[in-house]
Structure formats: C-alpha cells, structure tokens
Design brief:
447 residues, mainly alpha, two-stranded antiparallel sheet, 20 helices, 2 strands, globular
C-alpha cells in the first residue's frame, strides 16, 4: 500500500495529528467493545452492575492486548478485541448447560491460554509457515469480509426495517465516500465520521439509553476471578483449547494479511512473540477477568485501507487511554449504550475493503487456474453454507463440530488446507524433475 499517510515507524508530524489519530483509534476500538457486549454480554444475560463490571473488564483486556501486541508482540497498529470464536463457544456453553456451566468457560479459557503460550514458546509456529499459502490467506480474508458484512447488516437492521437502518446505511455510504473522495486528512477519518455523527443523530432522536452510564459508579475496578477458582469441567477445557487454537490460525492469517497490506515482513521471532502474548495475555488474562479471549482482528486490514494510518505510536496512546477508561465506571456504561446500528455501519464499511483485499491476495498466488479457482470457491461457499444452517440443526451435532464448522472463518481455513495440501496437492517442481529423471532410464530400457 503506497499511499499510507503514516507508515509503521513514522512519528506524528504535529500535536494536531497526535490528538486526531490517537482519538480516531480510541473511537475505532469502540466496535471491539461492541463485539464483547453483543455476543457474550447479551448472550449470558448480563444486566445492571454485572454488565457494567463486565464492560469495564472488556475495556481493560482490549487496551492491554492491543497495547502489548503493538509494543512487544507483532508490533503493528492492529486492534485486538473479543474473539468471536471463543465468544460463540461461551454462548454455546450457556445454551447447552445453563448460566453456571457457561461461567466455567472463562477459567477453562485461562487454562487453554497457558497451553497455547507454552506451545508458542516451544516454537510450534514454524509448522504453520510450512502449510500457509496465498490461497489460504486470501480465502480467509474474503470470509472475514463476508462474515463482518453479515454481522454489520444484522446490527443495522436490528428487529425490523426502520429509519435506524436507513441512517446506518447512509453513515456507511458516507464513510465509504469519504475514504474514496476525501482529500488529505479527511480521507483518513471514515470510522471517526461514522461513529461520531452516528452517535449525535441517535442522541437527537432519543435512541441512546444512558441508564447504564448514569447508574455506574465513578470508580469501577474490573473483578479478578469474578466467578471463582473452581476447576472447570474437562469437556469445557478441551473445547476452549480447540477453539482458541483455531483462533490462532485466524491470527496467523490476520497478521500476514495486514503485513502484506502495509508492505512489511513478519519475521519468525516476531511471530513467536505475537503468539506467546496471544496465549498468555490475550487468552489466559481475559479468562481470569471473566471476558472472552482477544485477538488482532481481520478488520484491521480494512481499517488501514480506510484511514491510511499504520503508525504504532497512535495506537499505543489509544491503548493506554483504554486501560485507564476501564477503571472509570460511567465509560463502561457508555460502551453498553452504543446503538447497534452505528456499530453495523462501521463494520459494513470495513467489510467492503476487506473483501477487496482478499481478492487481491488470491491474485498473488503462484498460479490461480482451474484447480485453484475450484478449491477456493468450493471452500468459501461450503464454509458460508455451513454457517447458515439453523442453530437447531447444529444443536444435534457434537458440540466441538458445531463450534468449529458453524464458524465460516475457521472452516474455510481448514477446507483450503485440506484441499490444497492433501486432496488436490500438487507436486513441487523439484520433485517433478526428479521423477522425470528417474523415469528416463526406465523408458530407454523398455525400448
């Protein structure tokens, strides 16, 4: 991406830029909070003071994971937020065994993170490099875009087709127009435009409920081990380990996809640090605070395309600010009051650029002929189709299959690996030449 306003290690050019782009990252990180609220917060029926404490813990884990990864881990300007894969596993546990059973998921997640962190320290990431390809990465990025677009439209519509959908759609179109036509600094502000203007419109229309903000205490420290230290059931530990390992594959693709967009290289040492933090800081620590594991979002690819800002300095400031806000109760209440249509408008704008990046990534494959087109197309539409199967049908399948294959981002990675590396595997050129050389003497002998 040659038109970046700020590259990775660039320093702010003015105090105005310090404030503007740091604030934009703070605002952009809001949608990560919305994910934590909309999936687990709503799914576990958190309300009142319990919801406010949960939201404060979500703010804390987003700030810590984003800041530590940008400073010590992958060292990119990438937002980390509640991971949809373990989040859905937690909600599925609630549906299967009730509230008490689901609350055990958080400690099970913490235990799973210790295992993942140990695997990262042992250097297992190098094995992912051996099978990863542009076909896997491109398919995953396209699926991220499709999944984000679906979620965004669900948030925009909410319960019916109303004026809120029309406003959200206009906000998304306005953000896209600004990204394409905006000159200078204006072309870097779509997320800020959508969230800022959207909040103003919804406040004026009386569609923002400030009750959680008014009822929250001024100081609200997130609780450590809010659901106790009892040993979780073994089946939950295994499920949380598997789904977070799958999220690790997702992280690998997000990391390399983002690096490709900003023309940076991901070194093996950098990967090791990133995945070590993913295990201990992004999986174990959130579990101890009673929140879902975090991960660097695939939407970051769309964010950098929209904002053209890839410098770490701004997101580091925003991360520190988020950590501080976690201890300010009314802000956690404000996060719980965000209208979902605004979050949907942001996600829809991001999805459009992410899908384009995925198509561009597929084009970088050494070959994209009939074999590649078929296996990618089949994987994408099979994964998408499985994700659209009604929940009552998935409920009849083993829980681990439901958790993995009802998630299109994880399933498309597994399907492309299966088809590209096993079922339709092609021999490399050196192996083909060797086999041809071995066959020549046999042909002469036959003659």
């Amino acid at each position: 991406m040659e038109d970046l306003v700020y590259k990775l290690e660039d320093k702010p050019k003015s105090t105005r830029h310090w404030f503007l782009y740091s604030f934009q990252w703070i605002v952009t990180m809001f949608y990560a909070v919305v994910w934590g609220y909309a999936i687990v917060g709503v799914g576990l029926d958190f309300e009142g003071a319990e919801l406010t404490r949960y939201m404060s813990a979500v703010l804390l884990t987003i700030g810590l994971s984003t800041g530590l990864q940008a400073y010590l881990g992958h060292r990119f300007a990438m937002v980390s937020g509640p991971n949809v894969i373990p989040s859905l596993a937690i909600v599925a546990a609630f549906a299967a065994g009730g509230r008490e059973y689901a609350l055990h998921s958080f400690l099970a997640q913490a235990i799973a993170g210790l295992v993942i962190g140990a695997l990262a320290l042992a250097g297992t990431i190098r094995y992912i490099r051996k099978i990863w390809s542009p076909l896997i990465l491109g398919s995953m990025i396209i699926m991220v875009g499709l999944a984000v677009a679906e979620t965004g439209l669900e948030y925009m519509v909410e319960e019916d087709w109303s004026w809120t959908f029309a406003v959200a759609l206009l906000l998304a179109l306005g953000g896209s127009f600004l990204a394409i036509k905006g000159k200078g600094i204006w072309g870097t502000l779509p997320p800020l435009f959508i969230i800022g203007l959207g909040f103003l419109v919804f406040i004026l229309m009386g569609e923002v409920d400030f009750t959680p903000m008014r009822e929250a205490p001024v100081f609200a420290a997130p609780d450590f081990l809010p659901y106790g230290l009892r040993m979780p059931p073994w089946d939950l530990i295994i499920i949380m380990l598997v789904v977070n390992l799958m999220a690790g594959l997702n992280l690998y693709g997000n990391l390399h996809g983002y690096a490709k967009v900003i023309n940076e290289e991901v070194k093996l040492k950098q990967e090791k640090k990133c995945f070590t933090l993913f295990g201990f800081i992004e999986t174990t620590l959130p579990g101890l605070f009673g929140t879902p594991a975090t991960v660097a979002y695939g939407e970051n690819l769309g964010i950098v395309q929209l904002t053209k800002v890839a410098a770490r300095s701004f997101i580091l400031i925003a991360s520190v600010f988020f950590v501080l806000l976690a201890f300010f109760g009314p802000f956690g209440g404000l996060m719980a009051a965000i209208p979902l249509p605004i979050a949907g408008a942001v996600l829809l704008g991001i999805a459009s650029t992410v899908i384009g990046i995925g198509a561009q990534t597929l084009n970088t494959a050494p070959a994209f002929g009939r074999r590649e087109q078929t296996l990618v197309g089949f994987s994408v539409f099979l994964s998408l189709g499985l994700s659209l199967i009604p929940e009552e049908i998935w409920a009849q399948a083993p829980r681990i299959l439901d958790t993995i294959f009802s998630n299109p981002i994880i399933s498309v990675i597994l399907f492309v690996i299966l088809f590209e590396q096993l079922i339709f595997r092609q021999k490399d050129k050196d192996q083909q030449k060797q086999e041809q050389a071995d066959n020549k003497p046999q042909k002469k002998q036959d003659q």
